Amino acid sequence: MAEPLAYEGTGYEIVEEEPPEVLGRNLISASYLLAGATAFFFIAFVFAYFYLRSLNNGGLWKPHGVDASIGWGTAVVACYVLSAVLVRLGLTDHRALRRAQWRQKGGAALLVGVVGLVLQVIAWTHQSFGPADGGFASVYFGWTAFLFLFVLGTLLWLEMTFATSLRYRTMETQAPPPGHASGDPHREAHDIRDPLSLVRAELVGLSFYWTFLAGIAVLSWIVLYLV
Asked: How many CB atoms lie within 10 A of CB 12?
């Protein structure tokens, strides 16, 4: 039977100083897997839209007066897309070691994304129909509500990456105090060697996923407002 990697009484030096490249690759791979899972999730709404539309039972797919406001929808999706673009530009700045510029774009991306969420809530209150007013109404509210939740989670990811970079902005040319991020005052080394280097990997994964999710938002805008 193999010996466990760590157990009660294991010295700190056994579990410290993991190479950051390992977690960095894991973070990027996780963003790809998350994008795949997200695609399968929203395919259900695409299917529901076209299936219910083709059935149109009792002519109740889209009764008279059930029309989503294209103005509100465009404003919401524009905010999502702009936020994703700013994150992508911020990643370019970070790769070029222009970290102050990345923080400016990261903060702006977070603000624009939040504005998009607020506009979505306002848009719901300004619609002239409810989720029970036909098949389209059900798909519209379900699709936009879950997109709202996915965007909210992505913005939380952005906020944590931005906050880490902002908090340690004076330590970008040197490592933070040993064990500083572990919450354990007895640590004599980092859990992850050079933990600030993971900001780059976070940005790579975040930028990929946020761009992908913004693409889904554009698809939702086309289907729900133009088709």
From this structure: 16
